[in-house]
Design goal:
6-stranded antiparallel β-sheet, Aspartate Aminotransferase, domain 1, single chain, 122 residues, 4 helices
Length: 122
């Protein structure tokens, strides 16, 4: 999957998740996706290289960096809790969707219980 396709798919997948807000608080060059007012995904192009940054469990992050060439520590983010995805042949749409779902769930899990109930009803 190339970088442009990666970002297009990531945007579609993120916007399919409940209560996702797409905004540009850091300027037009950074697409930001939030749930419950908290960021779970960022997209940008740096030095001509498109990337998608996502929250990640620290242990999964390290494992995924070993498995996928297209997964690196978060670009300009906390390297322990964020990963950045880049377009490589081992990054598939399914992998991107799984990472986005994990990121969204990590953020929702940290929200107050009352917010979790309306965002993710049982």
């Amino acid at each position: 999957m190339d970088g442009k396709s990666l970002q297009e798919h990531a945007k579609r997948a993120a916007l399919e998740l409940p209560f996702t807000e797409h905004c540009w608080p850091f300027g037009p060059e950074y697409d930001v996706f939030k749930v419950g007012g908290k960021i779970f995904m960022l997209m940008a192009v740096v030095r001509g290289r498109p990337h998608v940054s996502l929250k990640s469990d620290p242990e999964k992050s390290l494992l995924n960096q070993q498995i996928y060439r297209g997964v690196e520590p978060g670009y300009h983010l906390n390297k322990k809790h964020w990963i950045s995805l880049y377009g490589t042949d081992d990054i598939t749409p399914e992998v991107v969707t799984d990472f986005i779902n994990d990121s969204w769930n990590l953020v929702v899990d940290k929200l107050p219980k009352k917010d979790q109930k309306w965002i993710r009803p049982a």
